[in-house]
Amino acid sequence: MLLSNFSGIYYETGTDEAGRGCLAGPVTAAAVILTEDFEIELLNDSKQLNEKTRNLLKPLIEEKAVSYSVTNIEPKIVDEINILNASIKAMQECIMKLDPKPSYIIVDGNRFKPIKDIPYSCIVKGDSKYMSIAAASVLAKTYRDEYMAKIHEEYPMYNWKKNKGYPTKEHREAIRKYGITKYHRKSFRLLPEQLELDFKYHENI
């Protein structure tokens, strides 16, 4: 049973990210402020839901939320500031886009950085404990999946529509065969045997 509020403060926002462990594509975060009486029975941590259920929940969350926002941080930034900082940056940017401004932030995980003096708490496995974090996890995952399906059309050989940029055997075989693209994270270990980055690039990056 998911809880509706952690702080007891109105306009509490939950935030979460998706795509942290991927080899390609953005890290995507969402932040959501829910009403006090918000309730959707199917809602849970996005990792516990199948794609069909997540896609069913997305418009319901958007319709019922007081406010929500989604932010993509592109691979180039991930490479520049590292994946942890990129994940936090994505969540911070989401929070800044919310209207009304949240009075309290609850973050999935154990790392965050203060933003605009808004009090916050990090909650390990928060996406399976609090509705607003679960809702944020669903939005982050569905928006990122849509993005990966879109760039799949540009580079179908990596099958991002299916693997979403995660390090599947198929994805790594495609990297070995075709090299990397502008959507790959060059600071990540893209192949198990990788010692240094000597991949070929596509002409149109």
Automatic annotation (TrEMBL):
One Gene Ontology CC term in the entry: cytoplasm
Gene3D superfamilies from the UniProt entry: Ribonuclease H-like superfamily/Ribonuclease H (3.30.420.10)
Pfam families per the UniProt record, alphabetical: RNase_HII
UniProt cofactor(s): Mn(2+); Mg(2+)
Binding site for a divalent metal cation: 16-17, 108
Cofactor note: Manganese or magnesium. Binds 1 divalent metal ion per monomer in the absence of substrate. May bind a second metal ion after substrate binding.
PROSITE patterns: RNASE_H_2
InterPro entries in the record: RNase_HII (IPR022898), RNase_HII/HIII (IPR001352), RNase_HII/HIII_dom (IPR024567), RNaseH-like_sf (IPR012337), RNaseH_sf (IPR036397)
CDD domains: RNase_HII_bacteria_HII_like (cd07182)
Designated name of the protein: Ribonuclease HII
Organism: Flavobacterium arcticum
